[in-house]
Amino acid sequence: MEHQFDLDRFSKILTEKGYDGYFHTEGCCAGKLKDSIGEFLEAWRNGKEAPLIANYLHLSTYLNWNGEDKPKIECDMYVRYVNGKFDLQETELSIKSLDRFGQLQKQSKLSKLTASSFPTLKEAIAQVSDKPKQQLSSQSKRFKI
Fold first, then answer.
1. Which of 15, 4, 2, 1 is nearest to 82 (CA)?
2. Which residues on neighbouring strands pair with residue 108, listed in sequence order?
3. Whole-number Å distance between alpha carbons of 17 and 136
4. Contact 98/73 with Cβ under 8 angstroms?
5. CA 33 to CA 71: how far, in whole Å?
6. Which one has a higher pLDDT value, 64 or 132?
């Protein structure tokens, strides 16, 4: 199965999986995924920016954001980028659930991904979310005579 994609196909795969929010590429270049990466690649070609890790681009986004004082879920991707292609098999995905103070609550890391195994936004959120609390039964728990 194919695991190397150009920018258009890579951004389409992630957008179809639900990653349609705003990203930062290498800590700068904020915007929608394709725009953020494109802006960074242009700056790199012009000598203004460079990846911190050779042959990898760091992409970061929030999967769930409800405000500064609320819990949030962050996602960091380290995507191998060589010769104009993004390699999903060499991508590391780190998903973190943080409390309202920024303290780590739960973390999940994934690697060796393919286009079909890359988690959807909901699947990624579920990996670091607490399990739903069991609902109490509607029957009364009192002793009956």
1. 4
2. 95
3. 34
4. yes
5. 23
6. 64
DSSP 8-state secondary structure symbol assigned to residue 26: T
Q: What is the pTM of this model?
A: 0.84
Whole-angstrom distance, CA of residue 62 vs CA of residue 31: 12
Q: Residue 100: what are its φ and ψ, rounded to 5°?
A: -65, -15
- In 3-state terms, what secondary structure has residue 122? helix
Considering the chain, what percentage of its residues have pLDDT values greater than 70? 88
Structure tokens at 102: 């920024």
Distance of CA 12 to the CA centre of its chain: 14
- Give ∠ CA 34-39-45 in degrees, rounded to 5: 125
Q: What is the rounded radius of gyration, in angstroms, for the C-alpha atoms of the chain? A: 19
Q: Is there a contact between 74 and 98 (Cβ–Cβ < 8 Å)? A: yes
Separation between Cα atoms, residue 111 and residue 89, nearest integer Å:
7
What distances in angstroms separate CA 95 from CA 40, 48, 105, 131, one per listed residue? 23, 29, 11, 16
Compute the distance between CA of residue 136 and CA of residue 99 in angstroms, rounded to an integer: 26
